[in-house]
Specification:
Radius of gyration of chain B: 52 Å
Strand content of chain A: under 5%
CATH architecture of the largest domain in chain A: Orthogonal Bundle
Radius of gyration of chain A: 18 Å
CATH topology of the largest domain in chain A: Rna Polymerase Sigma Factor, Chain: A
Distance between the termini of chain B: 131 Å
Order of helices and strands of chain B: HHHHHHHH
Number of strands of chain B: 0
Structural class of chain A: mainly alpha
Shape of chain B: rod-shaped
Number of helices of chain A: 9
Number of domains of chain A: 2
Helix content of chain B: over 70%
Oligomer: heterodimer
Largest sheet of chain B: none
Number of helices of chain B: 8
């Protein structure tokens, strides 16, 4: 973890000196995290890629003034979340599709794959039906592995608010999945 | 007996409790049927949520981002060059303007000490004929020339 932090700081220092290859290294290192987070929040690959692109361009522009006060990933997540919120506000009136169907998933034809796909669809639907804050809290906690404190740092909410959101979000998810006959009562 | 609360249970399932907290929760869950049922449901939910994996393999944005950054860097450098040129041109203009102002100032100052600068209008007024002086006219006055033409036709020719 410490190596990761120092590595990010070194990459930012190189970028500040105008070394564009450092930006490439940063992108390659973090793009999966950024893409999956923005995709889960927005439910659209095209918009997720736009957010990822803008996130790293903001990092590039801010490199000269970057001071490693907080963990790099906390800053990174904060940028991604703000951009996702902006994107959601822009498209508030439009109904966002839950997902483009992955051709690789469609190609799976065995019974287990179909069943798994149903579960995944149910989970996605349930997560997307949560309120914006609950959804974000769950995504950061369950899929990005952030602690309550880290979620609070990234979102600007208090730790107790994060805990409250998570408890309600998981309870809602259980209820929604029950309604979809996915869980036994 | 103190039950495991929702947050502790969530963190226990996520494997994020401290070693001590983890041990306490484990001991309690083994002894408490109610909490073990809650724990089972929590694990079920956690695993179900975990099935939503996102494959980012086909979405490599690194090349696009570095290309955009390089483009921005190039434009910035070009902008700096233009800026330097603009500053250089502005300095030349300022130098020329300053030279003109200094030249005017010096010329004005020196003009005060020139021979022609000492000629006063009073001299011309002193030589005017008495009749012009009586009328309160100067040589330069149009009315004065009318009077002079009447007196001497030659004066008009000279004019």
């Amino acid at each position: 973890m410490t190596n990761d932090i120092s590595n990010d700081t070194e990459l930012m220092a190189r970028l500040a000196k105008g070394d564009i290859s450092a930006l490439g290294d940063l992108v390659r290192k973090h793009q999966d995290k950024v893409l999956s987070l923005s995709y889960r929040v927005l439910g659209d690959w095209h918009r997720a890629e736009d957010v990822a692109q803008e996130t790293f361009l903001r990092i590039y522009r801010a490199a000269k003034n970057y001071k490693p006060k907080a963990k790099f990933t906390t800053w990174l997540y904060r940028i991604v979340i703000n951009l996702c919120f902006d994107e959601q506000r822009k498209r508030a009136k439009a109904v966002a599709p839950l997902e483009d169907v992955d051709p690789a998933v469609l190609a799976e034809s065995d019974c287990h794959a179909t069943e798994r796909k149903e579960v995944v669809e149910s989970v996605k639907t349930a997560v997307n039906e949560l309120s914006e804050r609950q959804r974000l809290a769950v995504i950061l906690h369950r899929y990005d592995g952030l602690s309550h404190t880290e979620i609070a740092e990234v979102t600007g909410w208090t730790t107790s608010a994060v805990e409250s959101l998570l408890v309600r979000a998981y309870a809602n998810l259980r209820e929604k999945l029950n309604k979809m006959k996915y869980f036994d009562e | 007996m103190k039950h495991v609360n929702d947050i502790e249970l969530m963190e226990y399932v996520a494997g994020k409790l401290t070693a001590l907290g983890n041990e306490k929760a484990r001991v309690h869950l083994e002894a408490c049927h109610e909490c073990s049922v809650r724990w089972r449901k929590a694990v079920e939910l956690w695993k179900s949520l975990g099935q939503w994996s996102v494959d980012t393999a086909g979405h490599d944005v690194a090349g696009r981002i570095t290309a955009l950054a390089e483009e921005a860097e190039r434009k910035q450098k070009q902008g700096e060059k233009t800026h330097v040129l603009q500053v250089g041109f502005l300095l030349v203009v300022l130098r020329v303007a300053a030279s003109i102002i200094i030249a005017i100032g010096v010329g004005h100052k020196l003009g005060k000490y020139s021979v022609t600068g000492n000629v006063t209008k009073a001299a011309a007024s002193e030589n005017r004929p008495e009749y012009l002086a009586a009328l309160g006219l100067e040589w330069s006055s149009e009315l004065a020339w009318f009077i002079l033409e009447d007196d001497s036709p030659n004066m008009g020719e000279e004019r």
